[in-house]
């Protein structure tokens, strides 16, 4: 074990009983994530506005989202293998620096006028790098806090990130209205530079050793191992399958909300940013409540209820013409998405053996988002052809039914997980050997 790893281990052991905000390594990581999301929330508004400004088409907005989603899915296939083989902290820093450069190109090129082709290059690359970062993030949190506090840690990170998400869309909307959406993308690029600098200060506990014989290591074998563990665990398998359906139906919801506000209701970019900022308050609420809800209700009821309410809020988004009501429904939707997402991520962190965590996370996201890009393209095409009200109603009802379908799966009975320290041979965790096919 290296000197830095020993120091990180000692810091983690002495900080187990401390509040999370007083734990140095987690604190720096927490701040880096918050600033990164602040910048992300600028691009979340700015990129669709750049497309809408140039084309006036929600279908073109959905196409950009779909292209980014395809890149994310392709990256997810191999992200877990990469994360489980390299230094996680260095990987996160590299991802931040690459995204800083890529997003920084947009405002520079836009000085000469709109160049939509650049967005179809930059966004897929950034989404692919972002998937590497996301999988790495899951494993890093596991190396920063005690396993019993994973849900709390994820909730705290999500809460402050959502607080940044309140300011981000609001600032992006105002900046887009005053100086143009391209300038808002520049803020995203700058946020990645600061995040990378903070991650330099983080020390992560060294992961458990990989005890596989050298002859049994290989990319395809690693992929099969991650997928095999996921599909053999009854709760993880059910969660992944239902989230795949939900993602297909909902990946394009951000484009749908922006189009509804600007095209159907006739409001400007500032209103779009304000509504999305108010919606982000829901994410803060969900992140702050998730640990308490899960302790009181258990994983299954919490996850099922939040997914069901997501669908109901989605169904109502296209029906209402009052901007404040749209903002409230966005807040409810994002609160429930945050609760469900934090619960499922924490469950994977808790029950997956650490040497497998990157590959299992990668397998989960690959399967979850495999069909989502096509869903985003279909959703926005249908909204342009048939109207946002009808499309949101159909998609929302289907999302609600997806949540209720969990009542017929092992999710309904899922309670406290087996501790993460267990190996696949312990307790009721499914055994997955490298020689087994997925």
Question: Could you explain how this protein is built, in words?
Answer:
- The protein has helices at residues 3-15, 24-55, 58-83, 88-110, 116-142, 150-178, 181-199, 219-232, 234-250, 253-264, 269-297, 299-317, 323-351, 357-369, 372-386, 388-405.
- The protein has 438 residues and is mostly helical.
- The chain has a single domain, classed as Growth Hormone, Chain: A.
Summarize the structure.
It is built from 16 helices and no strands.
- Strand-residue proportion: under 5%
User: Cα distance, first to last residue?
Assistant: 33 Å
CATH topology: Growth Hormone, Chain: A
Q: What is the N-to-C succession of helices and strands?
A: HHHHHHHHHHHHHHHH
Ordered list of secondary-structure elements with their pairings:
Layout: H1 3-15, H2 24-55, H3 58-83, H4 88-110, H5 116-142, H6 150-178, H7 181-199, H8 219-232, H9 234-250, H10 253-264, H11 269-297, H12 299-317, H13 323-351, H14 357-369, H15 372-386, H16 388-405
Helix pairs in contact: 2-3, 2-6, 2-7, 3-5, 3-8, 3-14, 3-15, 4-5, 4-7, 5-14, 6-7, 6-11, 6-13, 8-14, 9-14, 9-15, 9-16, 11-12, 11-13, 12-13, 12-16, 15-16
Label this structure with key terms.
438 residues, mainly alpha, Growth Hormone, Chain: A, 16 helices, 76% helix, globular
């Amino acid at each position: 074990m290296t000197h830095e790893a020993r120091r990180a281990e000692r810091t983690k052991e002495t900080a187990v009983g401390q509040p999370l905000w007083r734990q140095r390594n987690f604190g720096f990581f927490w701040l880096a994530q918050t600033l990164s999301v602040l910048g992300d929330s600028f691009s979340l508004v700015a990129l669709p506005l750049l497309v809408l400004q140039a084309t006036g088409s929600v279908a073109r907005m959905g196409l950009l989202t779909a292209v980014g989603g395809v890149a994310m899915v392709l990256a997810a296939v191999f992200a877990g293998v990469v994360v489980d083989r390299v230094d996680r902290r260095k990987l996160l820093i590299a991802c931040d620096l690459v995204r800083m450069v890529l997003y920084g190109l947009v405002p520079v090129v836009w000085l000469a006028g709109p160049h939509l082709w650049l967005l179809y290059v930059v966004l897929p690359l950034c989404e692919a790098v972002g998937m590497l970062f996301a999988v790495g993030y899951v494993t890093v949190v596991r190396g920063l806090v005690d396993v019993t506090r994973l849900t709390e840690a994820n909730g705290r990170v999500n809460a402050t990130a959502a607080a940044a998400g309140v300011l981000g869309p609001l600032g992006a909307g105002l900046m887009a209205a005053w100086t143009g959406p391209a300038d808002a993308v520049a803020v995203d690029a700058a946020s990645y530079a600061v995040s990378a600098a903070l991650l330099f200060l983080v020390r992560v506990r060294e992961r458990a050793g990989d005890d596989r014989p050298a002859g049994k290591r290989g990319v395809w074998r690693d992929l099969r191992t991650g997928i095999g563990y996921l599909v053999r665990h009854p709760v993880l398998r059910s969660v992944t399958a239902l989230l795949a359906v939900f993602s297909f139906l909902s990946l394009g919801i951000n484009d749908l909300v922006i189009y509804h506000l600007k095209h159907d209701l006739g409001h400007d970019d500032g209103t779009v940013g304000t509504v999305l900022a108010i919606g982000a308050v829901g994410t803060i609420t969900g992140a702050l409540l998730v640990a308490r809800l899960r302790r009181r209700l258990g994983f299954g009821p919490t996850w099922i209820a939040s997914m069901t309410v997501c669908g109901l809020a989605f169904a109502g988004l296209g029906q209402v013409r009052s901007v404040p009501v749209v903002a409230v429904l966005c807040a409810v939707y994002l609160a429930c998405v945050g609760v469900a997402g934090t619960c499922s991520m924490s469950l994977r962190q808790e029950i997956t053996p650490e040497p497998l965590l990157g590959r299992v996370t990668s397998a989960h996201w690959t399967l979850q988002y495999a069909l989502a890009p096509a869903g985003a393209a279909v959703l926005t095409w249908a909204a342009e052809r048939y109207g946002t009200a009808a499309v949101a109603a159909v998609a929302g009802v289907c999302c609600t039914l997806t949540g209720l379908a969990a009542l017929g799966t092992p999710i309904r009975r899922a309670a406290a997980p087996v501790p993460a320290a267990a190996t696949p041979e312990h307790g009721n965790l499914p055994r997955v050997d490298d020689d087994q096919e997925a």
